[in-house]
Amino acid sequence: MNKIEALEKEQLRTDIPDFGPGDTLKVYVKVVEGTRERVQLFEGMCISRSGGGLREMFTVRRIASGVGVERTFPVHSPRLDKITVVHRGIVRRAKLYYLRRLTGKAARIRERR
């Protein structure tokens, strides 16, 4: 193992739950406003997960005031306070970009029980 791999390995987070596309997540993000820091909740459906290792990213989509909002987060970022899985969805795709053009009940995903 070279030095770069060793450095990346010590920066990987171990408190990340197992989740994938179709799962509804609560992502608690540390937000800095001036001199203060607070934790902000972003709840929505994971529509993609890409990359690997320290560079792994995931995208969460939610509907806010009738408008779709997507945020992409690095999985191992120190800005993430915690991630919790609310529902697990049954999907057959790795990327759920088709949800962008669906609205209302058509955009629902079946829940894994």
Please outline the helices and strands.
Elements: H1 3-11, E1 24-33, E2 36-50, E3 57-64, E4 67-74, E5 80-87
Antiparallel strand pairs: 1-2, 1-5, 2-3, 3-4
Count every helix, treating DSSP H or I runs of 4 or more residues as helices.
Answer: 1
Shape: globular
Gyration radius (Cα, Å) is 16 Å
Main sheet: strand order: 4-3-2-1-5
Supply database-style keywords:
single chain, 113 residues, mainly beta, five-stranded antiparallel β-sheet, 5 strands, 8% helix
Structure description:
This protein has one helix at 3-11; strands at residues 24-33, 36-50, 57-64, 67-74, 80-87. With 113 residues, it is mainly beta. It has a five-stranded antiparallel beta sheet with strand order 4-3-2-1-5, with no helix packed on it. The mean pLDDT is 92.
